């Protein structure tokens, strides 16, 4: 009970204005000491910095006769150590394995997503300059610039996460920082099944579809789990195949022995040197890929993706932002039109139907859980409309105890894909011994 009281008092103190004021004054005093040390300070280990800060803060508090107890002095020293040797208030959030997204709307407005649920954090920065100082410390090793001439930055972090920052004059209420974290160890299909993302029947269908080299498009909204699902599907890929991934910002972490990772490049300030996803997909076709995986289809690259799927690169996969399988098909048509597709509407739809085998729709429910909400097979074109068949549909229901449960409803229709039929025939031929005459 006493530990809970101490933790509560510590949390109250850390989130108080008094803490911010004392920390700022102690930080200024530390900077003066660091200037005296010069280059020597840059060679210190984190342990040495921690000891230096502990002694300096203790002396600072005693000299100024600031009424703080030992625990409060330690909290300020820990915070200042993170400022000098780490990433300040962000350090604990970045180290928290349960944190998925960190969203900062100005220095004193921080939201964090855990298990799909977004909640406000008590954490805060001293001011916007403090927040910018931490952000620039993250960007410095990445070689990215953030200033008035370049007020918007999108970058990949060393651990695979993604950082997006918008500052004034584009951001009205201070720096807007969005950090998407990714797991060091990607979720396996068995992990997603255990988490309830899908059941045994969907597991079997997805495994067979990947191994049969079906072309799969994972569709869903923001933070619905598209990338995690794509990573999980990669566990079904045969180890003797060469996989090329193409992404705007490298997020995929495929558990496969032969992966070639390509990432697009933004042009310079003068507008030169840019390399688009479309360029990368076109080039990947010359790299002898067995499968091409596109992190997210959002522009003109949709034409190259469709052509790759239609010209011998079966088993390719991609993600796309859409709210349903039907909207997913409409979005592909729209993107192809924006990309300057020269053929007729009917020829485009035939190309889409010929390229795609399955659309896996994933969504984030109101309780934060991520579920596959639909698996739809693309069958062909009829009456100038792409025909589809929904194989599974997710439903939520309440059990006798009043708890929400998941189930996937099916009409019992088997997939029409000839790729799956060939796989079944090959598997049965391997099991059935040859007849002897």
TrEMBL record:
Residues 414-437 are annotated as: Disordered. Belongs to the GSP E family. Signal peptide: none annotated. Pfam families: T2SSE. This is Pilus assembly protein CpaF. InterPro entries: P-loop_NTPase, T2SS/T4SS_dom, T4SS_GSP_E_ATPase. GO terms for molecular function: ATP hydrolysis activity. Residues 84-361 form the Bacterial type II secretion system protein E domain.
């Amino acid at each position: 009970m006493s530990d809970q009281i101490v933790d509560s008092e510590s949390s109250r103190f850390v989130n108080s204005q008094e803490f911010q004021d004392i920390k700022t004054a102690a930080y200024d005093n530390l900077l003066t000491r660091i200037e005296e040390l010069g280059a020597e300070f840059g060679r210190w280990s984190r342990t040495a910095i921690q000891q230096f800060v502990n002694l300096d803060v203790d002396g600072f508090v005693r000299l100024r006769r600031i009424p703080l107890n030992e625990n409060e002095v330690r909290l300020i020293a820990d915070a200042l150590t993170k400022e000098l040797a780490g990433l300040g208030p962000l350090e604990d959030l970045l180290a928290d394995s349960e944190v998925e997204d960190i969203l900062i709307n100005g220095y004193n407005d921080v939201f964090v997503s855990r298990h799909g649920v977004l909640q406000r954090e008590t954490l805060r920065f001293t001011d916007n300059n403090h927040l910018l100082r931490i952000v620039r410390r993250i960007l410095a090793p990445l070689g990215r610039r953030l200033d008035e001439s370049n007020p918007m930055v999108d970058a990949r972090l060393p651990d695979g996460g993604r950082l997006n920052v918008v500052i004034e004059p584009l951001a009205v209420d201070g720096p807007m920082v969005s950090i998407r974290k990714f797991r060091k160890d990607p979720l396996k299909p068995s992990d997603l099944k255990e988490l309830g993302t899908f059941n045994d029947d969907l597991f079997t269908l997805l495994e067979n579809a990947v191994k049969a080299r079906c072309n799969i498009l994972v569709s869903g909204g923001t933070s619905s789990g598209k990338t995690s699902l794509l990573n999980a599907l990669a566990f079904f890929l045969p180890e003797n195949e060469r996989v090329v991934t193409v992404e705007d910002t490298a997020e995929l972490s495929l558990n496969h022995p032969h992966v070639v990772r390509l990432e697009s490049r933004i042009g310079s300030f003068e507008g030169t040197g840019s390399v688009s996803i479309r360029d990368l997909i076109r080039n990947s076709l010359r790299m002898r890929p067995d499968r091409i995986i596109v992190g997210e289809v959002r522009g003109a690259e949709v034409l190259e993706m469709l052509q790759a799927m239609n010209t011998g690169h079966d088993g390719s996969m991609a993600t796309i932002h859409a709210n349903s399988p039907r909207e997913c098909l409409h979005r592909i048509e729209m993107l192809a039109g924006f990309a300057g597709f020269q053929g007729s509407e009917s020829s485009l739809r035939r190309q889409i139907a010929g390229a795609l085998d399955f659309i896996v729709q994933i969504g984030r429910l109101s309780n934060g859980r991520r579920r596959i909400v639909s698996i739809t097979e693309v069958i062909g074109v009829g009456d100038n409309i792409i025909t589809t068949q929904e194989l599974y549909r997710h439903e939520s229901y309440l059990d006798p105890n009043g708890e929400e449960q998941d189930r996937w409803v099916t009409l019992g229709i088997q997939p029409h894909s000839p790729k799956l039929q060939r796989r079944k025939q090959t598997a049965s031929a391997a099991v059935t011994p040859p007849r002897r005459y």
